[in-house]
């Protein structure tokens, strides 16, 4: 038996056929349609086009996902999947048992199941993109929180001016600040260019990268002492840089050294899975 998994994004919906061990047998994607009827038809088409015996369908979705009620709260780039019994509709149309979980939580579950945090029970997973998202895993399961906002690290306030971790701790926003300070078109300064500018000796790029790394490290230190995880796993495109985790760990050492009484040093590692993480994690959740 296999699991049909879907990763629903604002631009594309990825899908795959996975074994109960997390192996991806087949995968593909389609452009995210602009209405619910088209979405349902495309999901059904995917199932119909595969010649597998599926034990169920596993969904990774944006928003405040409640698998028990079948309703996705909040808002996302796919507005028509929110605030009605979406899970029940999927089960009816796909004729399969359906589970659904938040996309960041799925990525974390993939890492705990067969990834960088395999066999760990308590981890923090941080996704660095245009903001900072993530998940908290406690006793091997997602800690959703009272309002399904567990892992929304990006809202944490970092200074007296009201700047959040999403604003200060991401390469995307660092690039925006650099382009503004250097009076360059925003489309000329992306995450890759930021590191190139620093390598070229640009003082602004150096300063903004120091800001990003410092506040990321500070947030990791604070979360270590608030939740006491075994490991902090970092995901997102920037984490794929060979030197990113090493440099972040250097800043974690610096922050820890500023608090002499602190004995616990956070263990910070990069994630194992990239674009397939949500499919694998949705499958892990389905099997749990």
TrEMBL record:
Gene3D superfamilies: 3.30.420.40. InterPro entries: ATPase_NBD (IPR043129), ROK (IPR000600). Belongs to the ROK (NagC/XylR) family. This is Transcription regulator. It comes from Listeria welshimeri serovar 6b (strain ATCC 35897 / DSM 20650 / CCUG 15529 / CIP 8149 / NCTC 11857 / SLCC 5334 / V8).
